[in-house]
Design brief:
Layout: E1 2-12, H1 15-46, H2 52-65, H3 76-98, E2 115-118, E3 123-124, E4 128-131, E5 135-139, E6 148-157, E7 160-170, E8 181-186, E9 192-194, E10 199-200, H4 205-222, H5 228-262, E11 265-269, H6 273-277, H7 280-289, H8 291-304, E12 308-312, E13 338-340, E14 347-349, H9 350-362, H10 367-372
Parallel strand pairs: 8-11, 11-12
Antiparallel strand pairs: 1-5, 1-7, 2-6, 3-4, 4-5, 6-7, 8-9, 9-10, 13-14
Helix pairs in contact: 1-3, 2-3, 4-5, 5-8
The structure holds zinc ion.
Zinc ion (ZN) binds at residues 322, 324-325, 327, 341, 343-344, 346.
Length: 380
Protein backbone atom coordinates (compact mmCIF):
# COMPACT_ATOMS: atom_id res chain seq x y z
CA UNK A 1 0.00 0.00 0.00
CA UNK A 2 1.40 3.39 -1.01
CA UNK A 3 1.02 5.98 1.73
CA UNK A 4 1.93 9.64 1.99
CA UNK A 5 3.75 10.93 4.99
CA UNK A 6 5.47 14.13 6.03
CA UNK A 7 8.64 14.93 7.94
CA UNK A 8 9.32 18.31 9.48
CA UNK A 9 12.70 19.73 10.47
CA UNK A 10 13.94 23.04 11.71
CA UNK A 11 16.47 24.69 9.42
CA UNK A 12 19.67 26.49 10.39
CA UNK A 13 20.06 28.93 7.52
CA UNK A 14 22.97 31.39 7.38
CA UNK A 15 22.20 35.09 6.84
CA UNK A 16 22.44 34.87 3.08
CA UNK A 17 20.09 31.92 3.05
CA UNK A 18 17.67 33.66 5.41
CA UNK A 19 17.39 36.49 2.89
CA UNK A 20 16.84 34.03 0.07
CA UNK A 21 14.19 32.14 2.03
CA UNK A 22 12.41 35.40 2.80
CA UNK A 23 12.53 36.32 -0.90
CA UNK A 24 10.93 33.01 -1.80
CA UNK A 25 8.19 33.48 0.79
CA UNK A 26 7.65 37.04 -0.42
CA UNK A 27 7.39 35.94 -4.06
CA UNK A 28 4.98 33.16 -3.11
CA UNK A 29 2.78 35.66 -1.28
CA UNK A 30 3.03 38.14 -4.14
CA UNK A 31 1.97 35.50 -6.70
CA UNK A 32 -0.97 34.47 -4.54
CA UNK A 33 -2.20 38.03 -4.11
CA UNK A 34 -1.56 38.88 -7.75
CA UNK A 35 -3.50 35.78 -8.85
CA UNK A 36 -6.37 36.55 -6.48
CA UNK A 37 -6.65 40.20 -7.59
CA UNK A 38 -6.62 39.17 -11.24
CA UNK A 39 -9.23 36.50 -10.75
CA UNK A 40 -11.55 38.95 -8.98
CA UNK A 41 -11.11 41.45 -11.79
CA UNK A 42 -11.60 38.86 -14.51
CA UNK A 43 -14.73 37.67 -12.84
CA UNK A 44 -16.10 41.20 -12.69
CA UNK A 45 -15.36 41.78 -16.37
CA UNK A 46 -16.21 38.45 -17.92
CA UNK A 47 -18.11 36.44 -15.31
CA UNK A 48 -15.46 33.72 -15.59
CA UNK A 49 -12.55 32.78 -13.37
CA UNK A 50 -9.11 31.62 -14.45
CA UNK A 51 -7.06 28.66 -13.18
CA UNK A 52 -3.53 28.06 -11.91
CA UNK A 53 -2.08 26.81 -15.20
CA UNK A 54 -3.40 29.75 -17.18
CA UNK A 55 -2.31 32.23 -14.49
CA UNK A 56 1.17 30.76 -14.32
CA UNK A 57 1.48 31.23 -18.08
CA UNK A 58 0.37 34.87 -17.77
CA UNK A 59 2.75 35.49 -14.88
CA UNK A 60 5.66 34.05 -16.85
CA UNK A 61 5.01 36.54 -19.63
CA UNK A 62 4.81 39.49 -17.20
CA UNK A 63 7.89 38.32 -15.31
CA UNK A 64 10.19 39.42 -18.16
CA UNK A 65 8.97 43.00 -18.22
CA UNK A 66 7.14 43.73 -14.97
CA UNK A 67 8.63 41.49 -12.28
CA UNK A 68 12.26 40.71 -13.23
CA UNK A 69 13.13 40.25 -9.53
CA UNK A 70 11.20 36.99 -9.68
CA UNK A 71 14.16 35.42 -11.49
CA UNK A 72 16.03 35.40 -8.19
CA UNK A 73 13.77 32.67 -6.80
CA UNK A 74 12.76 29.21 -7.90
CA UNK A 75 9.87 29.22 -10.36
CA UNK A 76 8.16 26.67 -8.11
CA UNK A 77 7.41 29.25 -5.42
CA UNK A 78 4.91 31.33 -7.47
CA UNK A 79 3.65 28.27 -9.34
CA UNK A 80 2.76 26.36 -6.18
CA UNK A 81 1.14 29.49 -4.74
CA UNK A 82 -1.17 29.70 -7.75
CA UNK A 83 -2.06 26.05 -7.19
CA UNK A 84 -2.87 26.87 -3.57
CA UNK A 85 -5.09 29.64 -4.82
CA UNK A 86 -6.85 27.13 -7.07
CA UNK A 87 -7.46 24.92 -4.05
CA UNK A 88 -8.79 27.86 -2.03
CA UNK A 89 -11.26 28.66 -4.83
CA UNK A 90 -12.26 25.01 -5.18
CA UNK A 91 -12.92 24.76 -1.45
CA UNK A 92 -14.95 27.94 -1.61
CA UNK A 93 -17.09 26.73 -4.54
CA UNK A 94 -17.44 23.28 -3.00
CA UNK A 95 -18.55 24.95 0.24
CA UNK A 96 -21.22 26.92 -1.61
CA UNK A 97 -22.59 23.73 -3.17
CA UNK A 98 -22.57 21.64 -0.01
CA UNK A 99 -23.81 24.38 2.28
CA UNK A 100 -20.62 24.47 4.39
CA UNK A 101 -19.34 27.88 5.31
CA UNK A 102 -15.99 28.32 3.58
CA UNK A 103 -14.76 31.87 3.23
CA UNK A 104 -13.82 33.52 -0.04
CA UNK A 105 -10.01 33.38 -0.60
CA UNK A 106 -8.31 36.20 1.30
CA UNK A 107 -5.28 38.28 0.45
CA UNK A 108 -2.17 37.15 2.34
CA UNK A 109 -0.72 39.77 4.62
CA UNK A 110 2.98 40.25 5.03
CA UNK A 111 4.23 38.77 8.27
CA UNK A 112 1.33 36.35 8.47
CA UNK A 113 1.96 34.29 5.38
CA UNK A 114 5.57 33.21 5.33
CA UNK A 115 5.72 29.98 3.45
CA UNK A 116 6.34 28.50 0.05
CA UNK A 117 6.48 25.09 -1.56
CA UNK A 118 9.14 23.67 -3.82
CA UNK A 119 9.19 20.62 -6.04
CA UNK A 120 11.88 19.22 -8.30
CA UNK A 121 15.44 18.50 -7.33
CA UNK A 122 15.28 18.14 -3.56
CA UNK A 123 17.84 16.11 -1.66
CA UNK A 124 17.98 15.16 1.99
CA UNK A 125 21.31 14.45 3.65
CA UNK A 126 22.07 13.37 7.21
CA UNK A 127 21.97 16.84 8.72
CA UNK A 128 21.25 19.11 5.82
CA UNK A 129 18.86 19.47 2.91
CA UNK A 130 19.32 20.69 -0.62
CA UNK A 131 16.56 22.82 -2.10
CA UNK A 132 16.34 24.16 -5.66
CA UNK A 133 17.78 27.68 -6.06
CA UNK A 134 18.56 27.87 -2.33
CA UNK A 135 21.22 25.20 -2.04
CA UNK A 136 22.33 23.23 0.99
CA UNK A 137 20.91 24.33 4.35
CA UNK A 138 21.81 22.67 7.62
CA UNK A 139 19.07 21.19 9.78
CA UNK A 140 18.91 21.39 13.57
CA UNK A 141 18.29 17.68 14.01
CA UNK A 142 19.45 14.67 12.04
CA UNK A 143 17.07 13.79 9.24
CA UNK A 144 15.48 10.38 8.97
CA UNK A 145 13.35 10.38 5.84
CA UNK A 146 12.24 7.17 4.18
CA UNK A 147 10.53 7.15 0.81
CA UNK A 148 10.51 9.29 -2.31
CA UNK A 149 10.17 13.05 -1.92
CA UNK A 150 7.15 14.73 -3.50
CA UNK A 151 7.68 18.29 -2.32
CA UNK A 152 9.18 20.52 0.35
CA UNK A 153 7.20 23.22 2.12
CA UNK A 154 9.31 25.87 3.83
CA UNK A 155 7.74 28.10 6.44
CA UNK A 156 8.73 30.70 8.97
CA UNK A 157 7.34 30.73 12.50
CA UNK A 158 8.49 33.73 14.51
CA UNK A 159 12.19 33.93 13.61
CA UNK A 160 12.65 30.23 12.91
CA UNK A 161 12.50 28.43 9.58
CA UNK A 162 11.10 24.94 9.10
CA UNK A 163 10.94 22.54 6.19
CA UNK A 164 8.29 19.88 5.81
CA UNK A 165 8.81 17.13 3.25
CA UNK A 166 5.91 15.26 1.70
CA UNK A 167 7.02 11.78 0.83
CA UNK A 168 5.45 8.67 -0.54
CA UNK A 169 6.38 5.18 0.57
CA UNK A 170 5.31 1.60 0.49
CA UNK A 171 3.85 0.21 3.73
CA UNK A 172 2.98 -3.36 4.57
CA UNK A 173 -0.53 -4.23 5.67
CA UNK A 174 -1.04 -6.14 8.89
CA UNK A 175 -3.78 -8.55 9.84
CA UNK A 176 -5.95 -7.37 12.67
CA UNK A 177 -7.08 -9.63 15.53
CA UNK A 178 -10.84 -9.51 15.95
CA UNK A 179 -11.12 -9.27 19.72
CA UNK A 180 -8.71 -6.40 20.13
CA UNK A 181 -10.97 -3.40 19.70
CA UNK A 182 -10.37 -0.41 21.96
CA UNK A 183 -12.81 2.40 22.44
CA UNK A 184 -11.25 5.81 22.93
CA UNK A 185 -13.17 8.71 24.28
CA UNK A 186 -11.58 12.11 23.92
CA UNK A 187 -12.39 13.56 27.27
CA UNK A 188 -12.85 16.99 28.68
CA UNK A 189 -11.06 16.49 31.99
CA UNK A 190 -8.46 14.17 30.62
CA UNK A 191 -7.16 14.19 27.05
CA UNK A 192 -8.46 10.68 26.31
CA UNK A 193 -9.68 7.58 28.12
CA UNK A 194 -9.60 4.07 26.66
CA UNK A 195 -12.18 1.34 27.23
CA UNK A 196 -9.62 -0.41 29.51
CA UNK A 197 -9.75 2.59 31.80
CA UNK A 198 -6.33 3.79 30.72
CA UNK A 199 -6.11 7.56 31.02
CA UNK A 200 -4.00 9.65 28.69
CA UNK A 201 -3.31 12.96 30.36
CA UNK A 202 -2.67 16.05 28.31
CA UNK A 203 0.39 18.07 29.32
CA UNK A 204 -1.92 21.08 28.95
CA UNK A 205 0.75 23.21 27.29
CA UNK A 206 -1.62 26.10 26.79
CA UNK A 207 -2.85 26.03 30.36
CA UNK A 208 0.68 26.12 31.71
CA UNK A 209 1.92 28.79 29.40
CA UNK A 210 -1.33 30.73 29.43
CA UNK A 211 -0.45 32.94 32.37
CA UNK A 212 2.81 33.84 30.72
CA UNK A 213 1.04 34.42 27.44
CA UNK A 214 -1.54 36.62 29.12
CA UNK A 215 1.12 38.69 30.82
CA UNK A 216 3.15 39.05 27.65
CA UNK A 217 0.11 39.97 25.57
CA UNK A 218 -0.77 42.66 28.07
CA UNK A 219 2.78 44.00 28.10
CA UNK A 220 2.77 43.91 24.33
CA UNK A 221 -0.42 45.93 23.99
CA UNK A 222 1.08 48.70 26.12
CA UNK A 223 4.09 49.12 23.86
CA UNK A 224 3.98 52.04 21.47
CA UNK A 225 2.89 51.09 17.96
CA UNK A 226 5.80 51.14 15.57
CA UNK A 227 8.42 51.21 18.34
CA UNK A 228 11.41 48.89 18.46
CA UNK A 229 10.19 47.56 21.80
CA UNK A 230 6.86 46.59 20.30
CA UNK A 231 8.57 44.71 17.51
CA UNK A 232 10.72 42.92 20.04
CA UNK A 233 7.76 41.93 22.17
CA UNK A 234 5.80 40.80 19.10
CA UNK A 235 8.63 38.44 18.28
CA UNK A 236 8.72 37.15 21.84
CA UNK A 237 4.98 36.55 21.73
CA UNK A 238 5.22 34.74 18.41
CA UNK A 239 8.04 32.58 19.82
CA UNK A 240 5.90 31.61 22.79
CA UNK A 241 2.97 30.67 20.53
CA UNK A 242 5.33 28.65 18.42
CA UNK A 243 6.77 26.74 21.36
CA UNK A 244 3.31 25.96 22.72
CA UNK A 245 2.27 24.66 19.32
CA UNK A 246 5.39 22.54 18.98
CA UNK A 247 4.94 20.99 22.41
CA UNK A 248 1.31 20.25 21.68
CA UNK A 249 2.15 18.65 18.33
CA UNK A 250 4.84 16.48 19.93
CA UNK A 251 2.30 15.21 22.41
CA UNK A 252 -0.34 14.51 19.76
CA UNK A 253 2.18 12.67 17.60
CA UNK A 254 3.38 10.57 20.51
CA UNK A 255 -0.12 9.53 21.59
CA UNK A 256 -1.48 8.87 18.10
CA UNK A 257 1.58 6.83 17.07
CA UNK A 258 1.42 4.78 20.24
CA UNK A 259 -2.28 4.07 19.81
CA UNK A 260 -2.02 3.26 16.10
CA UNK A 261 0.90 0.92 16.77
CA UNK A 262 -0.52 -0.93 19.75
CA UNK A 263 -4.30 -0.95 19.29
CA UNK A 264 -5.33 -2.97 16.23
CA UNK A 265 -8.88 -1.63 16.22
CA UNK A 266 -9.62 1.85 17.46
CA UNK A 267 -13.17 3.04 17.88
CA UNK A 268 -13.64 6.75 18.31
CA UNK A 269 -16.57 9.13 18.17
CA UNK A 270 -16.80 11.22 15.03
CA UNK A 271 -17.00 14.47 16.95
CA UNK A 272 -18.39 17.59 15.47
CA UNK A 273 -15.34 19.62 16.21
CA UNK A 274 -16.36 22.63 14.17
CA UNK A 275 -19.64 22.82 16.06
CA UNK A 276 -17.92 22.46 19.40
CA UNK A 277 -15.35 25.11 18.63
CA UNK A 278 -18.13 27.65 18.44
CA UNK A 279 -19.22 26.79 21.95
CA UNK A 280 -17.39 29.55 23.88
CA UNK A 281 -15.76 28.16 27.01
CA UNK A 282 -15.07 24.75 25.60
CA UNK A 283 -13.30 26.10 22.57
CA UNK A 284 -9.98 26.97 24.13
CA UNK A 285 -9.59 23.61 25.81
CA UNK A 286 -10.55 21.77 22.66
CA UNK A 287 -8.28 23.92 20.57
CA UNK A 288 -5.53 23.30 23.07
CA UNK A 289 -5.98 19.59 23.04
CA UNK A 290 -5.96 19.73 19.25
CA UNK A 291 -8.69 17.18 18.76
CA UNK A 292 -9.15 17.66 15.06
CA UNK A 293 -5.43 17.36 14.52
CA UNK A 294 -5.42 14.27 16.68
CA UNK A 295 -8.24 12.63 14.71
CA UNK A 296 -6.44 13.39 11.50
CA UNK A 297 -3.20 11.89 12.82
CA UNK A 298 -5.02 8.78 14.01
CA UNK A 299 -6.62 8.43 10.63
CA UNK A 300 -3.39 8.33 8.63
CA UNK A 301 -1.30 6.56 11.24
CA UNK A 302 -3.75 3.67 11.52
CA UNK A 303 -3.24 3.34 7.77
CA UNK A 304 0.53 3.32 8.11
CA UNK A 305 0.59 0.77 10.89
CA UNK A 306 -2.12 -1.43 9.44
CA UNK A 307 -4.60 -0.93 12.25
CA UNK A 308 -8.22 0.01 11.78
CA UNK A 309 -9.99 3.20 12.79
CA UNK A 310 -13.73 3.22 13.09
CA UNK A 311 -15.51 6.52 13.54
CA UNK A 312 -18.79 6.06 15.28
CA UNK A 313 -21.56 8.35 14.04
CA UNK A 314 -22.32 11.32 16.23
CA UNK A 315 -25.84 10.22 17.04
CA UNK A 316 -24.64 7.08 18.85
CA UNK A 317 -25.28 7.88 22.55
CA UNK A 318 -21.81 6.93 23.83
CA UNK A 319 -21.94 9.36 26.75
CA UNK A 320 -25.56 9.01 27.76
CA UNK A 321 -25.83 5.21 27.64
CA UNK A 322 -24.98 2.93 30.54
CA UNK A 323 -22.18 0.65 29.35
CA UNK A 324 -23.57 -2.25 31.44
CA UNK A 325 -27.36 -2.29 30.95
CA UNK A 326 -27.70 0.04 27.91
CA UNK A 327 -30.18 2.33 29.66
CA UNK A 328 -30.02 5.83 28.26
CA UNK A 329 -29.87 8.71 30.69
CA UNK A 330 -31.46 11.59 28.83
CA UNK A 331 -30.46 14.43 31.07
CA UNK A 332 -26.81 13.68 31.67
CA UNK A 333 -24.98 16.96 31.96
CA UNK A 334 -21.57 17.81 30.53
CA UNK A 335 -20.50 18.95 33.98
CA UNK A 336 -21.15 15.56 35.61
CA UNK A 337 -17.91 13.65 35.86
CA UNK A 338 -19.36 10.36 37.10
CA UNK A 339 -21.98 8.29 35.36
CA UNK A 340 -24.46 6.76 37.83
CA UNK A 341 -26.97 4.34 36.35
CA UNK A 342 -30.32 4.42 38.13
CA UNK A 343 -31.33 1.07 36.70
CA UNK A 344 -28.37 -1.24 37.36
CA UNK A 345 -26.43 0.91 39.83
CA UNK A 346 -23.26 1.19 37.79
CA UNK A 347 -20.98 4.01 38.97
CA UNK A 348 -18.19 4.83 36.55
CA UNK A 349 -16.07 7.70 35.24
CA UNK A 350 -18.02 9.40 32.45
CA UNK A 351 -15.20 9.20 29.89
CA UNK A 352 -14.49 5.56 30.63
CA UNK A 353 -18.19 4.73 30.28
CA UNK A 354 -18.20 6.44 26.89
CA UNK A 355 -15.04 4.61 25.80
CA UNK A 356 -16.59 1.25 26.69
CA UNK A 357 -19.74 2.14 24.75
CA UNK A 358 -17.61 3.02 21.76
CA UNK A 359 -15.91 -0.36 22.00
CA UNK A 360 -19.32 -2.06 22.25
CA UNK A 361 -20.34 -0.36 19.04
CA UNK A 362 -18.00 -2.71 17.23
CA UNK A 363 -17.79 -5.79 19.48
CA UNK A 364 -20.58 -6.14 21.96
CA UNK A 365 -24.07 -5.03 21.19
CA UNK A 366 -23.65 -4.90 17.43
CA UNK A 367 -21.35 -7.75 16.42
CA UNK A 368 -22.57 -7.61 12.85
CA UNK A 369 -20.93 -4.27 12.25
CA UNK A 370 -17.50 -5.76 12.58
CA UNK A 371 -18.12 -8.34 9.88
CA UNK A 372 -18.95 -5.75 7.28
CA UNK A 373 -16.30 -3.27 8.39
CA UNK A 374 -13.33 -2.98 6.10
CA UNK A 375 -10.44 -4.00 8.32
CA UNK A 376 -7.81 -3.19 5.75
CA UNK A 377 -8.16 0.52 5.61
CA UNK A 378 -7.96 3.45 7.93
CA UNK A 379 -10.38 6.30 8.45
CA UNK A 380 -13.69 6.58 6.71
ZN1 LIG B 1 -27.02 0.44 33.90
Amino acid sequence: MLVQQSYRYELKPNNKQKTLLAKHAGTARFAYNWGLARRIEEYKNTGKSSNAIEQHRQLNVLKKTEFPWMYEVSKCAPQESLHNLDRAFNNFYHGLKSGKRVGFPKFKKKGKYNSFRLTGSIHIFESSVKLPRIGIIRTKERTDVKGSILSAAVSRKADRWFVSFSIERERKKHKVAENSAKGIDVGINCFAVTSDGERIESPGPLDNALKLLKRRSKQHSKKKIGSANRKKSALRLARLHCSIKNRRNDFLHKVSTQLAKTKPVIVIEDLNIRGMMRNGHLSRKIGDAGWSKFMNMLSYKTEWYGSYLLRVPRFYPSSKMCSRCKTIKENFNLSERIYRCEKCGLVIDRDENAAINLKHYITGSSPGIYACGDTSGGGT
